[in-house]
Amino acid sequence: MFTAYLDPATGSAIVGAVAAGAAGASVAAKTMLAKMRFKKTAISDAGVGDVEVADDTTT
Amino acid sequence: MTPPGSAPDAAYDPGSFRDPSSRVWQADGKIFRGLDADAAAAVEIVRSARFFTSALERGDIVATDLAPASAAGPAGDDDRWEAVLEHERVPVITYPHEWSFSMLQDAATLTLRLVRAAIDDDITTKDASAYNVQFVGARPVFIDVPSFEPYRSGEAWWGYRQFCQLFLFPLMFTAYKDLSHQRWLRGAIDGITPGEAKKVLEGRRAGHKGYFTHVWLHAKADARFTGSSADTVSGMKKAGYRKELYIATVDRLLALVEGLEWERSDSTWSDYTSRGHYQSKELLLKADMVRSIAGQRHREQVWDVGANDGMFSRIAAEHADTVLAMDADDLVVDRLYRELRADGTTGIVPMVVNFADPTPGIGWNGTERPPLPDRSRPELTLALAVIHHLALTHNVPTTAILDRLVDLGGEVVLEIPSETDPMVTTLMGHKRAGTHDAYRLDTIEAQAADRFDVRDRVELPGGTRVLLHLTPRS
């Protein structure tokens, strides 16, 4: 039933939340913090020098 | 209803492929859309939603009905479609890069209003392309029914980015920087990226409404976050995203778009209405001739090239289903659109088209959004007071102009200003002496007679302009 085919794009999704106002900005901030925590955890799990970050890779 | 796909001429629309769950084709002069199983399930829910039936009744969504389930698509796709819709045919397909500012604004507003109404029924749109909207006369109509699907709780609007790229940023370019959006959208089928928008809009006027969030922050976030969108969507859900925020985003976008204004008050041709270069008798004679020719029979489509204030488009529209009122000047097209919108005219579609540089095919294979002659064939073309501009400003040989008119296939009303016409001498005065010695009334008339049957010839009272009624060689 769900046929979404576009990439909503991470940055756009976050800004779309900010566009909702203060409450949306709060959700956006929490989302970004969670991403940054995930990134920090991924870096420390990978060890020094292995900085392949799962959620922030570019193709 | 004729079963779709049964006609041998069934062919998929070249622009209908980006959403793999549905595709549009034409057969027997009708428009059909196949839906796969998921799309069919979604559309069944959407069609019973209150916002959808209301929008259909208002004419905001194209008239749509289910075709027989036995329908088959174009050859080889018999089993692909779970359900098939039939849509009312839009008389002429036009594209955002052919719309004026107010047309794009109205298309954007329609999109947002539908998104807003849909969410009250727990329906969202999975995209927000400007190509989802068409114009029937001066009225925008939403045509991409499968764009709507059930809303998944806690998710943001997936169409936000596309809305920015194809609607908001182009409108801001015009409203805030007086830049015509057409050439930007013509050059990029996916529209303007946040980074591009920031580069154009930043600076002294960067304090304009919507700039900080939708442009500056958007560009920064776009560059900063390149990871999985699916993770972000689920992360936002966990962080507490809810339907109220979705509604707030759409409401704020709607207020922003509705508040955008284009401040330019004049352009090269915006004062043409005063027509100081015509005596009033000439204008009346011209109108009479156009009315007489247009009234000889009813036509499906008429082109008015260099339509300006639409005076002759309105005359032609009395005897035609659709008149394309084309002009290269986006301000005059915008004014014409707003007048037609105000008086509810549906038979004239204003378009920003430069006949010397008409809309090419764009997108995949150069055919995804085809050039204008592939979308419309005029039975009558009004080429009033344009040949000298094409020849003298754009340096197009008059033979090439006439060949182009022959290629269009229909009759032509051609106005030829002579080499002594004040406008011609003015245009020639911009060039080195002798550049356009070949521009002569008798030469052009002979060239026209070589290519067409000349049905009628009228010399306007001023003595410097001639009207010809030309028909294809019999």
Describe, in plain words, how this protein is organized in 3D.
- The complex is a heterodimer of chains A (59) and B (474).
- Chain A is mainly α and 59 residues long.
- Chain A contains two helices and no strands.
- The longest helix of chain A has 25 residues, at 22-46.
- The model of chain A is unreliable at 50-59 (pLDDT under 50).
- By secondary structure, chain B is an alpha/beta fold.
- Chain B has a seven-stranded mixed β-sheet with strand order 12-11-10-13-14-16-15, sandwiched between helices. In chain B, strands 1-2-3-5-4 form a five-stranded antiparallel β-sheet. A two-stranded antiparallel ribbon of chain B has the order 6-9.
- The longest helix of chain B is centred in the N-terminal third of the chain and has 19 residues, at 101-119.
- Chain B is built from 17 helices and 16 strands.
- In chain B, helix 3 (101-119) runs antiparallel to helix 4 and helix 3 packs antiparallel against helix 9.
- Chains A and B meet through helix 1 and helix 2 of A and helix 1, helix 4, helix 7, helix 8 and helix 9 of B.
Labels describing this entry:
heterodimer; A: 59 residues; mainly alpha; disordered C terminus; B: 474 residues; alpha/beta; seven-stranded mixed beta sheet; five-stranded antiparallel beta sheet; 40% helix; 18% strand; globular; disordered N terminus
Please report the total strand number of chain B as a whole number: 16
Let me know the largest β-sheet of chain A.
Answer: none
Class from secondary-structure proportions of chain A: mainly alpha
Q: What is the typical, i.e. mean, pLDDT of chain A?
A: 77
Rg of chain B: 25 Å
